[in-house]
Design brief:
The protein is an alpha/beta fold. Helices cover 36% and strands 16% of the residues. The chain is built from eleven helices and twelve strands. It has helices spanning 9-15, 36-45, 69-86, 114-124, 141-149, 175-179, 181-190, 210-216, 221-233, 248-255, 293-306, and strands spanning 23-29, 51-58, 96-97, 132-136, 157-162, 194-197, 207-208, 243-244, 262-266, 269-270, 276-277, 284-288. An eight-stranded mixed sheet has the order 3-2-1-4-5-6-12-9, sandwiched between helices. Strands 7-8 form a two-stranded antiparallel sheet. It has a two-stranded antiparallel ribbon with strand order 10-11. Helix 5 (141-149) links the parallel strand 4 and strand 5 (157-162). It is globular, with a radius of gyration of 18 Å. The mean pLDDT is 95.
């Protein structure tokens, strides 16, 4: 797929400016894959002053926690429901959607799902002056499928994706990207306004430890205790142990973009060797180059303490 004509360069550059004020957003997340998605979903829902979160989509994943992409998506769907309930939002609202049951079977072949259809619907209903931000923190299958089902939505959305490694990294075989290389290429080649947040070399700085979690998260409401337990259970030996909460970066870009500095770069080419190749003739994207670890965790901890959020 290459539908660059659907988005003019001037519109793309306008959409790639860091967000200001309150924005509309959906979150695409493989929530049961690790423990960082849970933190990111809570952060998004606890930031109504900057994010009007309209929907959450369950993304597929396959690792030791799932029997395959479909099972991973279903487990993520159930985890989203748990978190939404702990934050006081009714589970029967039109808010959480099942996503793809498989990865893209080939280049430019979408996987239909309730999540992809909902994204198309919301994007088409968006005012041209008020784009829908799509924060994606898992395999990009649902988003790529929506773009393939309805390419015109590229002019109505801004995708913020945690995927791949820094452009200077020796490879980009990162979990989110490597699961569905076809989907990653669809998004990178589509011309959709894209904010790319690399994992190693950028989001990898978002590290915390169990003592910090116990002090600032444990006991901060039902959601705080839930997140703290997820963190404690993720490792059998926390002595000298720290863990990356990568996915906070995508939400932080929407909430406090000054803490997530970025540059305009040409969209990289994703090679068959799953490495980055640079081509200065390609369209621009925004690529995050650093994260202010302390500012991001402070904001999350303060919001958990205040207990604010959508009710």
């Amino acid at each position: 797929m290459n539908d660059n004509a659907a988005v003019t360069e001037s519109l793309r550059l306008e959409r790639l400016a860091p967000p200001t004020g309150r924005i509309r957003a959906v979150l695409d997340t493989d929530t049961f894959n690790e423990i960082d998605d849970q933190f990111a979903l809570a952060y998004a829902m606890l930031s109504p002053e900057r994010i009007r979160l309209e929907a959450v989509y369950a993304a597929p994943f396959h690792n030791e926690l799932s029997d395959g992409p479909k099972d991973g998506m279903e487990k993520s769907y159930a985890e989203i429901k748990r978190i939404v309930g702990k934050l006081g939002r009714s589970e029967d609202e039109d808010f959480v959607f099942r996503g793809s049951e498989s990865y893209l079977p080939g280049a430019d072949v979408p996987v239909d799902s309730p999540a992809a259809r909902d994204l198309v619907r919301r994007a088409l209903a968006s005012d041209a002056a008020d784009p829908l931000y799509v924060a994606a923190i898992g395999a990009i299958t649902n988003v790529a499928s929506a773009l393939l089902l309805q390419p015109s939505i590229a002019s109505r959305i801004v995708v913020v994706w945690l995927g791949g490694h820094a452009l200077s990294w020796r490879d980009t075989r990162e979990f989110n990207l490597a699961q569905d290389v076809h989907a990653a290429r669809v998004v990178l080649d589509s011309g959709v306004p894209l904010v790319l947040i690399p994992c190693m070399g950028v989001a990898s700085h978002l590290i915390t430890t169990l003592p910090e979690i116990r002090h600032y998260v444990q006991g901060k409401g039902e959601i705080g205790s839930f997140l703290a337990q997820r963190f404690e259970d993720c490792c059998n030996d926390h002595y000298g142990y720290s863990r990356v909460i990568w996915d906070l970066s995508a939400i932080a870009y929407l909430v406090q973009p000054e803490a997530v500095p970025s540059d305009l770069v040409h969209s990289p080419v994703l090679t068959d060797q799953v490495t980055w190749s640079l081509d200065a003739s390609r369209h621009f994207i925004r690529c995050v180059k650093a994260v202010n670890r302390d500012a991001i965790f402070k904001d999350l901890f303060r919001k958990l303490e205040a207990g604010t959020g959508e009710r």
